[in-house]
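Field: sequence (string)
Field: structure_tokens (string)

Example rows 1 and 2, in order.
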Amino acid sequence: MENAGIIMWQDMVLMIVGFLFGIFLLPMLYGAAHGKPVSIITAFTTSFGLFITAYTYLSLDLVLAMSSSIFSGTIWFFIGFWSAKHEWS
């Protein structure tokens, strides 16, 4: 925790880009929830990778970037969930 209380510009940039990626996924989430599934493997592995990335950001004290990775990872998880639900029913 070297930079306690200081927000680095890299943290801000990674957060903005990460949240934009998550927002751009919302139409895909809507489609998956309404019967247009995507690859389950792609969705769950991307989700898992983003959660690992979030942990890595946390270890670097990039808390804002971590939050955006959790946001995008959660959206990918629900895309996988809805895709699996429609594929297996």
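Row 2 begins here:
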Amino acid sequence: MQRNPGRSSVPAPLILAAVLAVASATSAAEEEGGDGARAGEASREESDLEASLRRLRESLDTEGKEATLRVGGVFIADTVLWDRRNERHSGLEGSAARPSVDFRWRDDLRVHAEADLLGADARGHLLEAWAEWRPDPSLRIRAGRMRFALGTEFATREEDLPLAGYAFTSWLDGRHDAGAAVEGSLGDGALWGQASFASGHGFGLDGRARRSPWVGARVALRPFRGLADRGAWAGRALGGWFVGGGAALLGDFDDPVVLETPLGSTVFRTDDLGGDGGRWLHLDTGFAAGPVAAGLEVVRGSADGVPGRVGAAFDANQLTAWTASTAVSLTGERREWRDGAWKAPVPGSPGGAWEFALRYSNGDIDRDLFHQGFTTYDPSSQEFRTFSTLLGWRPAEGVRVAVGWVKVIADDSLTVFGGPGPRSFPRSGDDDRDSSFVLRLEISF
């Protein structure tokens, strides 16, 4: 879905106003805190911003003896400077406005609902609504509309990602859907696994319907977990290493294939394929050791029995992508991989946390989808890759200011990058590529 000129149906200044309203609320909370609150700040060595955000969270929580109700959300505003040839307009964009409500009963029951006010990445403005039961601290059973991920990146919420946006591996097999999942771990996290069922009443990262039911499983092994907190850095890296993967069998493949860059430019898009079935295979490995983390994900998918528009039915068995990324906490905060996802570092000093991240992602899609007329060589390219960097500052937990750069190179000329039309070798020299910058303000609580 091409979001032009911005990503939201709600005016971007409204998103920025929401972010500033949160900041104003934190200031009001600080004034109400009085001398006792300032004493608390001193004892915990909190910055003014950290103390204010903590008071805001506390003011939004309703706690009983055994139950807690929390009101929160994620708000992201981007200022994007597009490449001069990009058809989109530079300026302020609302990237996320997702208020949420979370109810917990003891440690056993949790109910979560999260809206998507922009409507860009969800259907009906409802992103998630699920209930979770924990019969044991190491076992979770969840049902409702939720995130289904076969790899680490899409299992990670956007506010915890070290970069802006998701890579092609997440775009291929990630979705939100109505279904159920069972998740558990053994050996203090040395073995982690998840089994899932999605009903086919969901949507992809582009917000379009995903109608294919799936049965999936994901597993990750940390064979040297006992070394994670001791020894030299090499030993800690080995202790923080994880390896695993996921797989999903699809009851049919009545879905489109859509891939966008991290900043939302479409580089591949098809109609619904209408296949008889399909599968996703997802390899996932990486490590988190002290202030450094890195990951590698490889996806291969297949849509089987797709009705041919030119000739007989065919199998589109080259739906592939791979992503490599690394992130470093420049101020020394510990990076963490837990329960199948990355976790954002918590600032270790009143000066906040600085981080730097790199990511390369490549997508390579079956040529038969072009030959059979499910897409064309504009708006789609057969192969494409992105290189992303980001420098971020987290002055307090739940707040980030970042500047990033995304370079895109496609095999084919694309109108979105200034190309003149259908398939061609690049006629203007650079209409198969894009180089754009983003300044991001993000608040989550």
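free_text_note (row 2): The domain at 12-444 is CATH 2.40.160.10 (Porin).
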